[in-house]
Structure formats: C-alpha cells, structure tokens
Amino acid sequence: MEEALALARDGLGRTSPNPAVGAVVVRDGEIVGRGFHTWAGVKHAEILALEQAGERARGAGLYLTLEPCSHDGRTPPCADAVIAAGIARVVVAMRDPNPLVSGQGIRRIEAAGIPVEIDVESTAEAEQLNEAFIFAMRNGGRPLVTLKSAVTLDGKIAAPEDNSGWITSEQARAHVQRVRHLNDAILTGIGTVLGDDPLLTDRTRTERARPLLRIVVDSTLRIPLDSRMVRSAADDLLIATTSASSPDRRRQLESRGVRILVADGPGGRTDLPRVLDHLAEEQYRSLMIEAGSKVNWAALESGIVDKIFFYYAPKILGGMHSLPVVGGAGRKRRKDAILFHELRLHQITKEEFAVEAWVVK
C-alpha cells in the first residue's frame, strides 16, 4: 500500500477532475504490476497495473489507494476489469466518495467472490492525497477553497510606502509554487493586478491535467489590456465582473482570449459564491486565493473559504498603516471572530513556517 500511495502521488496535479490513484499487483510476495492515473493517459491506475502484470494477475492481490470505479465514464468500470483479470484479493485504502461509486465497486467485486479489505491504517493518508476531490464529492461538486498569503509575524502583507522585495524567502516561494500546482484555479483581485502586474502561473514546469485557471475579481473591468495576465491569456484567464462593466470592454477582453463571467453581488460587488458555482459547473476541484486585504476579507466573510495556508516570515512591520492579511470591516466583537480547527504547522526553512487550518463553518 505504501508503494501504491507513492505511485498516486506521482499523479498529483495531473488527474483533475479525477482523483490521483495508485495501484500495485502482488503475486507470491513480488510486485508484478504498477500503475497510476493521469488525465492524459486516460486509463485508470488499476488497468495499467493489471496490463503490466498480464497473466501473473490471475490469483494475485491488488492494492489500491481508492475503490475501483463501477460506472461507465471515459473508460469502462474498473471493477469489472479486476474481476475479469482473476484477481484473488483486493485491498483498498478508502471507499470512493463519488456518488456514482460510493461502495458499488467494492460490492461488485465481493459479489464475484473476491474478498475486499479496507486498509484503515492508510485511509487518512489516502484522504489527504485527494483532499480537494473528496471535498468536492462530499459538497455537491463545490471546489475546495484555500486562502493563501505570505505574512509577517504581526500579520502584515504590505508596507504603506515601498513594497519592493519579498516577505518570505525563495524557499517559501518555491513551496508556494508546489502548492499552486495542486490547485485547479487561482483567484486574485484587481487591486493586486494594478499594483503588481502578476502572471499568476504555475511555474513548476510540471505536467498538469489542464492549464491553471487564473481568475481576477474586477467589478468594473479596470484590468489593463496590456497587463501581463491579459497579454498571456490563452483561454486560461477568467475575469469575474458585474453588469456595471462596459459591454465594449468585455468584447475587447474576449477578443484577446479572456473569459468573462458576470456575477452581480450585493453592493455592486462581484458575487464570489457565484464564481464558485461556475467553477463547480466546469468541474474545477480546487481554488487558491492569492489576493490583498479587501478580497481576503470578502472571501472569508462570504463563507467561500474552507481553509487557510499562511506563510510566516521572521519580520515585523508594525504601524497602523501597514496592510493586514485580512482587511475590510472585520468583526466588531471577539466572540464573533472567525474560528479555525485542525491546525497544522509546516516547517518551511529554519526560520520560516506555514500555518494550515480549516475554517469552522
């Protein structure tokens, strides 16, 4: 199972909207087949492992990080292939939360007289591996939303005057890229675009199932046509705006390969939950927010944020005018504070760490 989990990790970022899955076929104590799924490769992990094993799969054991599928999708049901291969025993790390499967794959295999075991000691690791996919399956297809930021020890993200340079180290920024690679989409606000002119691309140079979707929240379409994001748009840039934006401006952007989503929210602002609905409709499983104080607050207050990932640098800016990681109106009473649980610390460098935690809903 450890080998199967390692194989599944090789597929991370390369499987969306499907989960990352690893499979190992064992015959007489020897691994005779290995496989992991990628979207481009089409075939599921267990099929690749069974094909590699060939006739040696008959009477062998199959170790899988996720229950075999039981429905027709881009491929026929894997449960049927497992049965046809003559596998004698199946061990899975977890059941598939996809409502189209949800135990049916296990039941189909057991009905054929093949025992199936759930390796409960590996379940937590398997769930962590496919955190976004599992979240989406359990929440009606809604993508997992992570609010990411680099902050000083006193929670600041920008100084009132000169903001040249970085808050965190090169190692921390490289870690951010690896986390970004695991997400299907990334969102920022127009303020960040106007101030920093970012690209917001996946710079890991690692294969992806599909391009990282870049999203800008821009209620009146102030984004410059010569911005780096617009100039690099290749059907991977979505601007979420409102009906108050100029139709001519929308057409100009669309002619440059930019997608436009009109999502009217309260107070003339872009409706972030509507943006999330759109991503769910397009089967994006995860969204990372990398924005400024205002958008960070709007996202938290709207309830779309599921978890945070804050990188802390050993610095203090102080002052009343440095921007906090979350601005906006804020909560007026301590007892109304937004709460977090399941907190995890990640050591990034000797002096830097990150905090990962889930929002208490």
Give a quick summary of the entry.
This protein has 361 residues and is an alpha/beta fold. It has helices at 2-9, 45-53, 78-84, 104-111, 120-129, 131-138, 170-181, 190-196, 228-231, 247-254, 272-281, 293-302, and strands at 22-27, 30-36, 61-64, 89-92, 116-118, 144-152, 156-158, 185-189, 213-217, 237-241, 259-262, 286-289, 307-313, 323-324, 340-347, 353-359.
Summarize the helices and strands and which ones pair or pack.
Layout (H helix, E strand, L loop, with lengths): L1 H8 L12 E6 L2 E7 L8 H9 L7 E4 L13 H7 L4 E4 L11 H8 L4 E3 L1 H10 L1 H8 L5 E9 L3 E3 L11 H12 L3 E5 H7 L16 E5 L10 H4 L5 E5 L5 H8 L4 E4 L9 H10 L4 E4 L3 H10 L4 E7 L9 E2 L15 E8 L5 E7 L2
Parallel strand pairs: 3-4, 4-5, 6-12, 6-13, 8-9, 8-12, 9-10, 10-11
Antiparallel strand pairs: 1-2, 1-3, 7-14, 13-16, 15-16
Helix pairs in contact: 1-5, 3-4
Your description of this structure?
By secondary structure, the protein is α/β, with parallel strands linked by helices. It contains 12 helices and 16 strands. The protein has helices spanning 2-9, 45-53, 78-84, 104-111, 120-129, 131-138, 170-181, 190-196, 228-231, 247-254, 272-281, 293-302; strands at 22-27, 30-36, 61-64, 89-92, 116-118, 144-152, 156-158, 185-189, 213-217, 237-241, 259-262, 286-289, 307-313, 323-324, 340-347, 353-359. It has a 9-stranded mixed sheet, sandwiched between helices. A 5-stranded mixed sheet has the order 2-1-3-4-5. It has a two-stranded antiparallel ribbon with strand order 7-14. α1 (2-9) runs parallel beside α5 and α3 runs parallel beside α4 (104-111). The chain is elongated. The mean pLDDT is 95.
